[in-house]
Design goal:
Layout (H helix, E strand, L loop, with lengths): L7 H6 L2 H21 L5 H10 L4 H11 L2 H10 L15 H37 L4 E6 L2 E7 H26 L1 E2 L13 H11 L2 E2 L10 H28 L6 E2 L19 H22 L10 H29 L2 E2 L1 H8 L8 H10 L4 H18 L3 H6 L2 H4 L4 H7 L9 H8 L10
Parallel strand pairs: 3-4
Antiparallel strand pairs: 1-2, 5-6
Helix pairs in contact: 2-3, 2-6, 2-8, 4-5, 6-7, 6-11, 7-9, 7-18, 9-10, 9-11, 10-11, 13-14
């Protein structure tokens, strides 16, 4: 995890102390399972709950000798106990502890990310409602197409945010699982009943079957979902970057007092936040590839996945937390320029109304081919000669013999394109204030 892209709450989740704390929670929960089975005396469980401790520096010192982090940990915990120490790690293999404890840390990370997603979704909802009827140019291939509204653009990303929450809820639930089935998953040295008690205490669901590890398709699915979410953030960030271009300048990231856009050019106000989101989304997709590479382990387990996961799981959750927080801040401080949006609609000489005019001609008796060829000839001339399309339309006998002045005027009214805005907002759940609540 890089400090520049890591928020304090997430850094704590993936700290070494929290790793050991979750390991200890698993060890204690397993001891509770053995107590329920009648093996561990109640007073021993009580002593372990009250006195079991760890010291990160002592573990580090022991690991220099043992060259095994879990062995170093269990030996350090045992140093804080009396005779009851014999129950620590009883019947377990290292990955029983590591994988199950990892689920606990992922649960903590997921709670942070879920709150981020809700805040992000709600920021989009606010912008969508605020600019529901703010007309702007819709673009396809980067070229003027037909009118839309800035609210509809934000509503589209709002709907994507809802999908992000749904996919994240799914993978979060699937990752709230552990295994305590021993060295090759047979429960030879620890019965399923102990696992059941321990998992209930930890708030996890036992994985029905495993090897020495939880199967890594679970983790690949989880990291892939994070990468998809990051990619939807990239899509919005790309939209903001495009609309902030000097030639368009319909929105602009907030620019704080004292902020500098360039070391060389004092005038610069760059969409650096959105560019940051785009760059980090590429990293998340790389993490997804690594997570998929981790699925195919040898037989009941090897550790080729372990080193990679020490990087990609903190990295993926930490980056997504940072990205959501930063992009939400961009939305909350986004400057929107409705007047510029309307002005930009006229930069293509009224050509954006060509389809509406085409359909009007078809509706009044022309064949589609005749209508298309008539309109396209005029659009080409308007574009090539920098002439107003409507002026050419009103001077064309084929059109004026087919449409009245009122019908031509109606074809050039952008309100025609916005008549279903409320219908769309209702479909995505944005027509009333209560629809944005979790």
């Amino acid at each position: 995890m890089i400090d520049r892209y890591t928020r304090p709450e997430m850094k704590q989740v993936w700290s070494l102390d929290n790793q050991y704390q979750t390991w200890l929670a698993v060890e204690i929960a397993v001891t509770a399972g053995w107590e329920a089975e009648g093996l561990v005396p109640a007073e021993d469980l009580k002593a372990i709950r009250e006195h079991a401790r760890f010291d990160s520096q002592r573990i580090a010192d022991l690991e220099k000798v043992t060259r095994h982090d879990v062995v170093a940990f269990t030996r350090n915990v045992s140093e804080s106990l009396g005779a009851e120490r014999k129950w620590i790690h009883y019947g377990l293999t290292s990955t029983d502890v590591v994988d199950t404890a990892q689920a606990l840390r992922l649960g903590q990370a997921n709670a942070i990310i879920k709150a981020d997603l809700i805040a992000y979704r709600d920021a989009l909802a606010k912008l969508a409602r605020q600019y529901k009827d703010t007309v702007m140019m819709g673009r396809t291939h980067g070229v003027h197409a037909e009118p839309t509204t800035f609210g509809l653009v934000m509503a589209r990303f709002y709907q994507a945010a809802k999908r992000d929450i749904e996919r994240f809820d799914r993978v979060s639930k699937e990752m709230a699982t552990g295994k305590l089935s021993g060295a090759v998953g047979t429960f030879a040295n620890i019965p399923p009943q102990v696992e059941a008690v321990a998992m209930e205490e930890l708030g996890l669901t036992p994985q029905p079957i495993g090897s020495q590890v939880l199967q890594r398709d679970l983790h690949a699915d989880y990291v892939s979902a994070i990468a998809i979410i990051g990619t939807t953030l990239e899509e919005l960030a790309t939209e903001i970057r495009g609309l902030q271009r000097s030639e368009i300048h319909e929105v602009e990231e907030g620019f704080a007092g004292g902020q500098k856009g360039s070391s060389a050019m004092p005038h610069k106000r760059n969409p650096i936040g959105s560019e940051n989101i785009v760059g980090l989304s590429r990293v998340l997709r790389g993490y997804a590839v690594t997570a998929m590479e981790d699925v195919a382990l040898w037989h009941e387990r090897d550790i080729s996945h372990s080193s990679a996961e020490r990087i990609i799981l903190p990295g993926a959750t930490g980056l997504l937390d940072y990205m959501l927080h930063r992009l939400t801040g961009i939305l909350e401080h986004l400057q929107v320029f409705p007047a510029t949006m309307k002005t930009n609609m006229g930069r293509t000489y009224g050509l954006i109304y060509s389809q509406r005019l085409l359909l009007q001609l078809v509706n009044h008796g022309l064949s589609r081919e005749q209508a298309y060829d008539t309109v396209q000839t005029l659009t080409a001339r308007a574009w090539d000669e920098h002439l107003q399309f409507r002026d050419l339309v009103e001077a064309d006998p084929t059109i004026t013999n087919t449409l009245t002045e009122t019908e031509i005027a109606d074809a050039f009214d952008y309100q025609w394109h916005l008549k279903h805005v409320d219908d769309i907002f209702k479909r995505v759940g944005l027509l009333d204030e209560s629809s944005s609540q979790a």
